[in-house]
Amino acid sequence: MIDRIPQIAAAIVLPLAGLLGYIFVAEWLVGRTPARMRPRLRPWLWVGPALAFVGFFLVAPTIETIWLSFKNATSEAFVGVDNYVAIASDAGVVIAIRNNVLWIVLFTGAVLLAGLLIAILADRVPYESPAKSFIFLPQAMSFVAAGVIWKFMYAYQPPGIEQTGTLNAIVTTFGGEPHPWLIEPGNNVALIAVAVWAWAGFATVILSAALKGIPIELLEASRVDGANELTVFRRITFPLLLPTITVVATTLIIFALKAFDVVYVMTGGNFDTDVIALRMYKELFNVRNFGRASATAVVLLIGIIPVLLFNLRRFRSQEAIR
Amino acid sequence: MTLSRRLGPLPTHLAVIALVLVWTIPTLATIVNSFRPPAAISSSGWWTAFVPPFAFTLENYDRVLNSNNMAASFVNSLTIAIPATVIPIAVAAFAAYAFAWMSFPFRNTLFLLIVALLVVPLQMTLIPVLQAYQAIGVTGTFLAVWLAHTGYGLPFSIYLLRNFFGALPRDLFEASALDGAGTLTTFFRLVLPLSVPAMASLAIFQFLWVWNDLLVALIFLGGQPSVAPMTVTVSNLVNSLGQDWQRLTAAAFISTSLPLVVFLFLQRYFVRGLLAGSVKG
Fold first, then answer.
1. Pick from B98, B119, B129: which is nearest to A307 by CB?
2. Whose CB among A226, A300, B83, B224 lies 3.0–4.6 Å from A11's, allowing a Cys bridge?
């Protein structure tokens, strides 16, 4: 630890000093130019470093990956759409795509439902804030840690032996048969449940904030008019929450499409639990086929494009109001 | 207001408490298990620890820290996460200032690009960046992940800071300009001090994101134990411990200790960051 301190310190101080030095020198240089040039030159110097990073790490690689997806395993020769054809006829990829669809539907649905339920229920108890903190806690963990935690929840011993996993202990206490949650069909749901556990707090916090933004008078007025709680929720609360729900949903869908860590740690994609992001990783590191790995990544990008367009539209309309 | 009305109906309380229990038990179980002897973990459930004999031990922590590289990995995680938090925020602050308060051609188009990049999957970038890294020979070094996390963290950082900077009142900037303050003075004396809360939220976000990252570390550090952060070490242990898998409980808890501390003390900033921009890619 001690011997690492100089390295960490240098890794903080040097880039900061470099960036400060850069902006001071840049401004000094701008000051040397004719006054009418300055407003034209200055912005580029301020956004310059960010554009360089974004260009090198995101924009150029994304374009190059699309390019590589039309080349062979070693990126030496063009193969047209062969990689895509190979992917489409690969049973493993088909299962991975099916699983990602399952992730999008179940994960997004369950997190929204849990978040909404918790936000509404917690709103009615005096210990709301600590209750929400407990739900939110897993959000601070890595999925690697969450995966380990849930491996112990799902632990399985053959029937007759004392169950050490919480879930199977509950099942056998009520007279059921212990179930190998991560191995037998339904295991995708078991993996998704881990992610729901980790993300419910995210939805709760955001939906709860939106819930607090609904004027009390509006709710009271309809209650006075004789509406019951369910009607109040259906006619007032839910419609007013809908924009927030949509925003949360887009974030969740993106996560579901890119699901990787949970599956990598808990099943390694075995027993029919593979997902696209993990397949891409395997094509890259185990098979070393750059063409197919790139094509697999492009499949992921195509899945994300609708969400991307939706975000851009939402951003534009927000800007119009500003 | 009567007591029963103030406390709300009983079913609501039961439901909230049940939900809190369901969400807490997995973590609690792992923490309890991590202090139990390995033989006990593999033969009985964590709940049996609460009846005599109360056999608690630090053996799992001792083993995992001393023979499974966890202590070194903890330091590696810190070494990766601190610079990978500071650098992108500094770079983003410059850019966000320009996006919010300077006018230049393609400004809106470039910012739309940033918004689009928020959701572009990292998988689209891994191969070319890895090839570039291999060509210049930085794979397996901390520098590789510092730079990568800077690139990947920038869209969200710029997005969040630009929205915050942009919401500062225009009068402040006009007054500052009337006082003869230049761009640098306005940025360092006005914008930055006013943005401390936003920067704090962002710093916590980026720090936890890097600390909890598995994919970027797996790809660019190439699985070398000497530089592996805890996420990589723990996920390797999942496959390699075999007979000693009980130690995973301690490993998981060690890897979560720092995020939990951050969470407990800085939850307010974390939540604020979440509310400010819930579109991290």
1. B119
2. B83
Residue A64: both structure tokens together: 């190059």
Contact A122, A204 (CB under 8 A): yes
The answer, yes or no, to whether residue A7 has pLDDT greater than 90, is no
pTM equals: 0.91
Determine, for residues B212 and A142 on separate chains, whether the beta-carbon distance falls below 8 Å.
yes
% of chain A surpassing 90 pLDDT: 64
Span B71-88, pLDDT tens digits: 899 999 999 999 999 999
Q: What size, in residues, is chain A?
A: 322
Using a CB-CB cut-off of 8 Å, the residues of chain A touching B98 are 42-43, 46-47
Give the nearest chain B residue to A27 (CA atoms).
B184
Structural domain includes residue B281: no
CA–CA gap between residue A287 and residue B36 (Å, rounded): 41
Q: Which residues of A touch B121 (CB under 8 A)?
A: 257-258, 277, 297, 300-301, 304
Q: Residue B124: which domain range?
A: 68-276
Reported as a single tens digit per residue, the pLDDT across A198-220 is 999 999 999 998 998 888 888 88
Positions in chain B short of pLDDT 70:
1-8, 276-281
The tokens describing A236, both together, are 């007032």
Q: Are B150 and B210 in contact (CB under 8 A)?
A: no
Work out the minimum CA distance from B189 to partner chain A, whole angstroms.
14
User: Which of A61, A122, A144 lies at the smallest CB-CB distance from B125?
Assistant: A61
ipTM of the complex: 0.90
Residues of B in contact with A47 (CB under 8 A): 94-95, 98-99, 104, 110
Q: Between 1.10.730.10, 2.30.38.10, 1.10.3720.10, 1.20.210.10, what CATH number should domain A83-321 receive? A: 1.10.3720.10
Compute the distance between CA of residue B97 and CA of residue A47 in angstroms, rounded to an integer: 8
